[in-house]
Amino acid sequence: MADNEPRVEFPTSPEQRRQGGRYLVTDADREAFRRDGYVHLRGVMSPEEMDEIETVYDRFLRREIEVPGKDFNDMTTGEHATDPAGYAIVNVMLPRRYHPDWQGNVFEQRAGSIAEQLCGEGMTVDFDQLLAKAPGRDDAVFGWHQDQAYWIDTDDRRTATCWLAVDDSTTENGCLQFLPGSHHEPVRPHRPLHGDRSESHTLVTDLRPDDLTRPVPISRGDITVHGEGIVHGSGGNSSAGSWRRAYIVAFRSTDTVAEERRRGFTHSHNDNAEVLEEVDGLVTARTEPSGS
After folding, report:
1. CA geometry: angle 79, 84, 88, nearest 5 deg
2. What's the structural domain count of the chain?
3. Is 113 helix (H, G, I), strand (E, B) or coil?
4. Is 199 among the domain residues?
5. Confidence band for 6, pLDDT divided at 50, 70 and 90
6. Cα angle for residues 51, 165, 33 (degrees, 5° grid)
7. What is the pTM of this model?
8. Which segments of the chain are extended strands (E)?
């Protein structure tokens, strides 16, 4: 650069990094994602944009938007088609399917730009999800797992799961916790939390004695982005008055999404039971010796 040329500095504040439907990712963000398996991005959504997201989100929680079958359930018990007031973790799968007006919203747009900056070209929405923990629910625990354990094996596993905090996500109300670097390992054996997958969609794995997990509290409007292989989970909501609502949009390669759909895998809890038995975590559990 010549001495008289103006120096162009990379935008550093969230307000600068938000550029319409894009959010600018730094080299440090990319390195954290590669090294740790996740990255925390601050202020991806503005306060005003979060108000709009929250309005639709709460319509789902009030059951004003119809969600059929098991796609509206308690993630801890598998209970569905009952009063959600008693659910420990309200789980809504594929909200964009059941509320098409949400498709292409500003969060999806920015998340898509982040996915391509972290994972390369050719990324598309694979699925979306809402997860909500009410205050005072110590039982709202999402057990340790790897996302790939829930999914079928495909050649291209690139994934950017964008997890948006609709409320401040704290250690008290059950923020995400990650096992940094675990994405460099193979998928661990997983098992259904209760009985078999007809009773409980939720899969869990075990931590090892030397595993050191890291809680990642984030603010409303922030996101974490994690890949398919990192071990993660979250604790219960022991707060007296704080919800912990999250809005998740996961991006994978267009070829991977096409292959999933060809095999009848849509991420719906209503998918065919035979398909749900062939996910990586259960295949690994059947093929690896016990305790490995």
Report:
1. 70
2. 1
3. helix
4. yes
5. low
6. 135
7. 0.94
8. 18-19, 22-23, 38-41, 72-74, 89-93, 123-133, 142-145, 159-165, 176-178, 191-192, 203-204, 214-215, 223-226, 232-234, 244-253
- CA 204 from chain centre, in angstroms, equals 15
- Mark 256-275 as b/e (b = at least 16 C-beta within 10 Å): bbebbeeeebbbbbebeeee
Please state, in angstroms and rounded to a whole number, the distance separating the CA atoms of residues 21 and 107: 8
In a domain, 142, yes or no: yes
d(CA 202, CA 251): 21
User: Residue-wise over 95-110: b if at least 16 C-beta within 10 A, else e?
Assistant: bbbbbeebeebbbbeb
**8 Å CB contact between 203 and 150:** yes
Q: Check which CATH number belongs to the domain holding 223 and give it.
A: 2.60.120.620
Collect all residues with Cβ–Cβ distance below 8 Å to 200 and sequence separation of at least 6: 77, 78, 192, 193, 194
Domain residues for 144? 22-287
Distance between CA atoms of residues 70 and 92, nearest Å:
9
The Cα–Cα gap between 236 and 177 comes to: 12
Q: Is 86 exposed, middle or buried (0-12, 13-18, 19+ CB in 10 A)?
A: exposed
Q: What is the token pair recorded at 258?
A: 């096409």
What are the Cα distances from residue 51, in Å, to 14, 58, 84, 115? 17, 11, 23, 24
Instruction: Return the pLDDT at 1.
Output: 45
Q: Is 98 domain-assigned?
A: yes
C-alpha span between 267 and 74 (Å, rounded): 16
Counted residue by residue, the chain has a size of 292
Domain-located, residue 249: yes
What's the CA gap between 245 and 174, in Å, rounded? 10
In whole angstroms, give the CA distance from residue 44 to residue 15.
9
Q: How far apart are CA 209 and CA 261, in angstroms?
A: 38
Confidence of residue 35 (pLDDT cuts 50, 70, 90): very high
